Amino acid sequence: MFSGRGFNIDTLNVAPTHDPSLSRMTVVLMGDDSALDLCIHQLRKLINVVDVTDFKDGQAVKRELVLVKIKADGKTRPEIMQICDIFRAKIVNVAHHDVIVEVTGDEGKIGAFLGLIEPFGILELARTGTLALKR
């Protein structure tokens, strides 16, 4: 439905819910109000769609999870650990030449963290996409 109608997906997350018969999709789209309204209208027409909620800015709690493998040696590891402390990131794996860090937050926090650790060398990166719940 999205690609057929020309909607560009920024992030997409699909996961089970507390009801085992349902999955929740969180889709982040960028566009003007009329394009987003059209997308919501088209989604509501689909038979398998139970509900569609449009989260305007400030109406939802939004978070993303990122796992990032960072090049790290004996000299750079303390500085990486300090950056992790500042961002409340969690080091989940330590190897001889790299660390894997878990970071959770909104888009601004994730972007700022990645910007600071990029000079060390990002070896690999995995992101969940945005998750949201209405306030």
List the helices and strands and how they pair.
Elements: E1 9-16, E2 23-29, H1 33-45, E3 60-71, H2 77-86, E4 90-94, E5 98-105, H3 107-117, E6 122-127, E7 131-134
Antiparallel strand pairs: 1-2, 3-5, 3-6, 3-7, 4-5
Poorly predicted segments:
none
Distance between the termini: 28 Å
N-to-C SSE string, H for helix and E for strand = EEHEHEEHEE
What number is the mean pLDDT?
A: 89
Provide the β-strand percentage band. 35-45%
Rg (C-alpha, Å): 18 Å
| Helical percentage | 25-40%
Biggest sheet descriptor: 5 strands, antiparallel
Annotation field: number of helices: 3
Give a quick precis of the structure.
The protein is of the alpha+beta class. It contains three helices and seven strands; from the N terminus they run ββαβαββαββ. The longest helix has 13 residues, at 33-45.
Structural descriptors:
single chain; 135 residues; alpha+beta; two-stranded antiparallel ribbon; 25% helix; elongated
Architecture overview:
There is one protein chain. β4 (90-94) and β5 (98-105) form a beta hairpin. The protein contains 3 helices and 7 strands; from the N terminus they run ββαβαββαββ. It is of the alpha+beta class and 135 residues long. It has helices spanning 33-45, 77-86, 107-117; strands at residues 9-16, 23-29, 60-71, 90-94, 98-105, 122-127, 131-134. The mean pLDDT is 89. The protein is elongated. Helices cover 25% and strands 37% of the residues. The strands form 2 sheets. Strands 3, 4, 5, 6 and 7 form a 5-stranded antiparallel β-sheet that branches. The chain has a two-stranded antiparallel sheet with strand order 1-2.
